[in-house]
Specification:
Shape: globular
Number of strands: 4
Low-confidence stretches: none
Strand order of the largest sheet: 2-1-3-4
Number of helices: 3
Helix content: 25-40%
Mean pLDDT: 95
Structural class: alpha+beta
Largest sheet: 4 strands, mixed
Order of helices and strands: EHEHEEH
Length: 78
């Protein structure tokens, strides 16, 4: 089972594109809006060193930005 968490902000167009892409692929994910959760935002920057969104954690590996090819390569197939 994949563990996918997408870190977003309310105003990010690439975040919307990424969430739509995952939904179209049938990939369940958890969304964390760092604009609404400053503690999560701080943790994210401490973990990855990046402030930009979207950032996606897939089974412990990180993808920065809207990168469908890398995201799909990290999602394990059943």
């Amino acid at each position: 089972m994949n563990h996918v968490t997408v870190y977003t902000t309310t105003t990010c167009p690439y975040c919307v594109m990424l969430k739509n892409f995952l939904q179209e692929q049938g990939v369940p994910f958890k969304e964390v809006n760092v604009q609404l959760d400053p503690i999560a935002a701080k943790r994210l920057v401490e973990t990855t060193g990046h402030t930009g969104v979207p950032q996606t954690e897939i089974n412990g590996k990180w993808v920065l930005g809207f990168d469908p090819e890398t995201i799909m390569s990290l999602i394990s197939q059943p």
